[in-house]
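Title: Prediction job returns without error message
Component: structure pipeline
Severity: low
Priority: P3
Assignee: unassigned

Description:
Job completed but the reporter wants confirmation the result is attached to the right record. Sequence as submitted:
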Amino acid sequence: MSIPLTVSGSALHFSANSEIGLALADRERRNATIARQLKAARKRSRDPSFDAKVNRILHLYGVMDVTEDSRPGDPDAVICMDEYGPLYVAGKVQHLFAAYDIARDRLYGHLKTRKRRSEVLSFLRHLRSLYSHQRRIAIILDNTSTHVSTATNASVGLWAATENVELAYTPAHTSWLNRVEAELIALRYLALDVCSVDAATVRRYIRWRNQNGSDSRLQEILSRLVVV
């Protein structure tokens, strides 16, 4: 699922009225937008591993979407995680730790009062528990300080290796590469902006979303967001 940083402007040969033609046109437009965003982010980034990180994440998505063949060492499942907040719940500040499992099309979430490395690790361990140890999983996360520290902490690296986990980091300025971002925006539009913000609202939304993944309102929001 590699998307080049520059996209060819060559014409597509199809009927504009055909469903296949419209799908190809939409994909071409989306790929062009993604390519522009990647090009801009690459110029701003000082990360020497920028291209390698982007290509790895795109490959992981390709494997899950069955558009690319898996390679030795590739995971059986890919989970995208991030935090949302702060949220003010019952007069207290809380942070939503959220994760989207691509293969299962399921959203998970835990509310926590702090957002330190220890809470991140606790949530990572929970995500690991969703699959048997024999099944390798990859967790995609952004490069915020609490996340990056997991990449530089020897004990975390040992945990990941022992637990059969790959931690795949998005480079700076590319948080939109993380598919859970779209899910969190949908949470905001469909629940947090229209209901009282409390733990029950978050739990009800996650339960509803996992039971109604094809809901037209949800799909309309997700389709408008430029994610890979």
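Comment from assignee: result matches the submitted record. Residues 77-224 form a domain with the Nucleotidyltransferase; domain 5 fold (CATH 3.30.420.10).
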